[in-house]
Amino acid sequence: MEDLELQLKDVEKKLQAVKEFIEETGIDLSGEYEALEEKRQAIMKKLYSGLTPWQKVQIARNKQRPNFQDYIDGMIEGFMELHGDRLYGDDRAVVGGIGYLNSVPVTIICHAKGKNTEENIIRNFGMPHPEGYRKALRLMKQAEKFKRPVICLIDTPGAYCGVGAEERGQGEAIARNLLEMSDLRTPIVSVVIGEGGSGGALALGVGDRVLMLENAIYSVISPEGCASILLKDSSRAHEAAKYLKLTAQDLYDFKIIDGIIEEPVGGAHSDVAGTVRRVKDEVFKVLQDLMKKDIDVLLEERYKKIRSIGAYIE
């Protein structure tokens, strides 16, 4: 892995040198540039095909990964954001509203992370308060009333665990979402686009289809939290990441998720527009299938899907 990283750095350095030479002299070296670019792509493919769970955690947390705004802008036409839970206030860590996905009216609800410190402070680093989950549920019930399918984009380290959040019923808000989503009479598609952390992610994760991006993660606890509790050393997070089985590939094998959306070579952040396009196409394809089903059949299938998760020993 380290050898590949060194090779990649060397090729990128040469690419930059050739680019600067072309700009300075005007000499056509496009053949050399294309050969180096092909070599870079080949190394990237090798590098990203052998990632460890901990490396996938780092990619899932990359600040340049496409976030809620990229997906809304690239997927939803005529988006109108709706605010507030009608009980306490508006949580900016959850963004939701209505719009059109390829001319189909939908409700979209997203965990909201920023791409820099200033944006993340506004969005509370993607960690919702109870009012965020209650806003999400309000929009889901509205979607049910008007027969709009629901799309949930999951990207959170977890629900906010501050005193105020606990006082306002964080646990109850998450539990209420799980209950109501399991019986919501409209199709639901959930996609883990980055981090899927604990109940904070699960509160938007009860769907007829649950998809994950190739390098996203989905887990009951963060690797750091797991290492701190079980290994008594948070610096062993890289070990905990392996034990948690939090990658899309692991979760697909366990039948906890229903599909994996391939990312561009180099991760979603290397081609934001391409990633958004892939997610849009996959979500639309799944929704077309779900919308053909009778709602009672859909609910029965959702119930069986939820009940089949996990294993037990008699």
TrEMBL record:
State the function annotated in the UniProt record: Component of the acetyl coenzyme A carboxylase (ACC) complex. First, biotin carboxylase catalyzes the carboxylation of biotin on its carrier protein (BCCP) and then the CO(2) group is transferred by the carboxyltransferase to acetyl-CoA to form malonyl-CoA.
Query: Per the annotation, which location comes first and is thus the protein's main one?
Result: cytoplasm
Q: Name one GO molecular function term.
A: ATP binding
Enzyme type, top EC level? transferase
UniProt xrefs under NCBIfam families: accA, AccA_sub, PRK05724.1
- Write out the entry's keywords from A to Z: ATP-binding, Cytoplasm, Fatty acid biosynthesis, Fatty acid metabolism, Lipid biosynthesis, Lipid metabolism, Nucleotide-binding, Transferase
Top-level lineage group: Bacteria
One Gene Ontology cellular component term attached to this UniProt record is: acetyl-CoA carboxylase complex
Compartments (UniProt record): Cytoplasm
The GO biological-process annotations, alphabetized, read as: fatty acid biosynthetic process; malonyl-CoA biosynthetic process
The record's note on quaternary structure and interaction partners says:
Acetyl-CoA carboxylase is a heterohexamer composed of biotin carboxyl carrier protein (AccB), biotin carboxylase (AccC) and two subunits each of ACCase subunit alpha (AccA) and ACCase subunit beta (AccD).
Give residue ranges for domain CoA carboxyltransferase C-terminal: 35-289
Name of the gene encoding the protein in the UniProt record? accA
Family per record: Belongs to the AccA family.
Recorded hits in PROSITE patterns, A to Z, give:
COA_CT_CTER
State which pathway it belongs to.
Lipid metabolism; malonyl-CoA biosynthesis; malonyl-CoA from acetyl-CoA: step 1/1
Reaction(s) catalysed by this chain, per the record, are: N(6)-carboxybiotinyl-L-lysyl-[protein] + acetyl-CoA = N(6)-biotinyl-L-lysyl-[protein] + malonyl-CoA
Query: EC number(s) per UniProt?
Result: 2.1.3.15
Q: Which organism is it from?
A: Fonticella tunisiensis
Protein name as annotated: Acetyl-coenzyme A carboxylase carboxyl transferase subunit alpha
InterPro entries, sorted = Acetyl_CoA_COase_a_su, ClpP/crotonase-like_dom_sf, COA_CT_C
